[in-house]
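A note from the maintainers: we've had questions about how concatenated examples are separated. There is no special marker in the raw files; a new sequence line simply starts the next protein. For clarity in this README we add a label.
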Amino acid sequence: MNWDEMNDEQLLEIESKCCSYGDTVHYIDPAKIFDHCEGSWLFDREDKPYLDMQMWYSAVNFGYKNAEIEAGHQAQMEKLPQLACQYLHKEKIMLSYEIVKETEKRFGSKGRVHFNVGGAQAVEDSLKLVRNYTHGKSSMFAFMGGYHGRTLAVSEITSSFRYRRRYGHFGNRANFIPYPYCYRCFYGKKPGTCGYECIKQFEKLFETEYYGVLDPKVNEAEFAAFYVEPVQATGGYIIPPKEYFSKLQAILKRHNILLVADEIQMGFYRTGKLWSTEHFNIDPDVIVFGKALTNGLNPISGMWAKEDMINPEKFPPGSTHSTFASNTLGTAAGLATLAYCKKHDMEKNVTEKGAYLLKKLRELKTRHNVIGDVDGLGLALRIEMTKTDGFAPDKTLADAIVDEAMKGDIEVNGKKYGLVLDIGGYYKNVFTLAPSLLITYEEIDLFIQLFEALLKRLGH
């Protein structure tokens, strides 16, 4: 069988019979097969260029085939490419040190790092850590619209019922609290005049034992932790009000409830900071990370936790383990990624480019009444598609834009392009933009042209 001589139709025919459909690769029909990549671009087997505005859900923050990061990975490949994770290697120690040092600098707390392979596995490790620290408490708070993974335990704190429906409950389903989604406020309030109604409603849960949260006689809550995405990712790249999380954590601290920050999608400078949590004046007890740590070169994830939660006496050897958890190639790529961020001043770079792109999106919104909302923090940005009233969600339009974008035939200045977009949001009508953090200003301008061309093609 000569695979190189097969066309896409032949490959997809084999795929339809041999590959599980249980993952998420069939958003468009026919599914797209890509062949190579570079910088902000993917290329199909006909060498057509597609500007990628989601970069593998932020796993490739620093561009495809980043030579400096790949060099660190390759050097490890030639030196120590494999080692059982119960043994130590220098790069694991160095990477842990860098994350611990940088996190302490930002939040003032001493801590330790524990590695795993994927984001969901790291969240599961954090659940073990939290349950252990709180003497077995298994009830958690989490947000409506929150996404933390799809493994059995983690699906209990991911709000979407569809991830649990066919499998039943593994443990305790979280108590899901409305996220501060100001454009579509759960309580029907308006920004600036709401008086933080969302905070008042959460605080009210602690007024009496009959709301099922607190035993006021001993001031002990049934809940161990609140799992938060400081910037909600799959929920639609929603940017919360500046003071929301500091107000929320004040309530949590009064009742000895931990705050776990899920930085899997927003960490490593997606929002212009190492951790998106830094924008909101809070002090996380646990930070879960993954994706962009290795720029997508190797699956490695982990958690940072405060010393009193994760020291060897509290969280002893064997508490959790994975064969590939702190693998040599991943830790080397992680070190190269952090070094790259320092060398190229990611905070300044992302802040400036994010402001430029957000300005362009706001200008675009004024020209098209089917764009209901745009917002962003750093290079995590959102475009919410609506009916012509500027508010009613329009999933059909969002889906049509994706389908047209993947045809690879959008013409700008005599050249044809494709556009890689991802849809999120509560009503599946939001384009969650996560371009390469190295995207050029020229590529940003091209994106606006491509997106606007799609709107016009569809009659808007």
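[label: protein 2]
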Amino acid sequence: MAEPRERLLMLIDDEPAQCRLIGALAAREGWRTLVVREADSALATLATRQGMQVAAIILDQWVPGEDACALIAQLKARRPGIPLLMLTTSASPLLAVEAMRAGATDYLIKPVAPDRLMTALRHATTREAPRHELQHLTEKMPATADFDAMVGAAPAFRSALAVAAKAARGHIPVLIEGESGTGKEMVIRAMVAASARAKAPFRLINVGAIPANSVESVLFGHERGAFPGAFDRYIGAFQHCDGGTLALDEVDRLPAAVQDKLLTVLDKGLIRPIGAAHAFHVDVRVIAAANLPLADMVRGGHFAADLHTALAPVLVTLPPLRERPGDLPALARHFLARIGEQPGLRPLGITDSALALLGAFDWPGNVRQLQAVLFRAAVFCEGDALTSDDFPHLSDLLGDEAQSRPQRQEDAGVMLYTADGNLRPLEDIEADVIRLAIGHYRGRMTEVARRLGIGRSTLYRKLGDLGIDSAA
């Protein structure tokens, strides 16, 4: 039977403005919102005929009458299968761990962007694999800002880092392309840290998270009275970053009306706030990131060709995780080490069965999704290492495919045999070992040489003889 078009969402919250906002956003996705002001009413309502129709629950951490985590546990005891999302202003990993252990499906940090709320609701109520679950929380963990600390040995990934590291020392714009979750922000921050402007002002603006009619003001500023609601003068991001770096994430979503103004900044270094009588000069380096290839958007008429040219004198293309499966074990262990440092959690290992299951999934949300899934598994793990049983959602999604899919060569580290059962050439095995070592020791070539028991000069000679890029 087809799913009813309108579903019932219970919102447990006593803030009228927030209730109206969430109700309006949920309505766009076909939800009807039932607002309950406090804990006792929520529990009573859930037992009514109307309450039995509730398909998902959102509750605010500060709901009156009950500790939020205790209320989550009571709600889940009454309706074990219902998706439950908690709203909070806290980015504390400890609170997230407590909420998830109590039964929360997801953890949303206020103010919640409309897209983030809709994505969380959609993933909580469908069989779709979670792509951004816990995204905002996991992104609060200390981010890598050092090229040498980035995990991965895949040639395409190491080559991209080599291009970025070389470009970091310059002043021209750089465009970083890659699917959502591939690590574009990580590369941006590493570039800024390695640049001559490392101590100068820096801002990262997510264009896609800003309403289209506000992007111009956020970037270039506005004068008082420039438009209805402009009660005060506003200094834009370009002016704040004068002398430093401005990163524009999701630049592929930049409104057409703003593209010309950005091109003027790149070509002439001039900005004009909305309502200003004159333009003025700024010295800002622009690093842009795009989820979609801008060249394709230009061909489709959705992005200005001149702006694409100005943004991309240097292009860094990050491969998706499905194209670097050999990096997955090292990434998993790296994330688990970081997760284990968070309050309320502990360091965990990961078994071969778990890695095989992770390796069978294509990770549409890429590295960011992997980190979030590992975080959730770590919260509920009672042993010393994650096993395949700690990823029931992935097991359900993959079914027999996880067992039947041939293990990819990269997943096993270094394979000794070809698909027909014959030994691989020694030269190929040696090249794989060196690539694996470079990834494992994060490009620290002195350490790679030491662990392989050879000198640095020998290592570099082998890189040349085996045709391995020094960035690989």
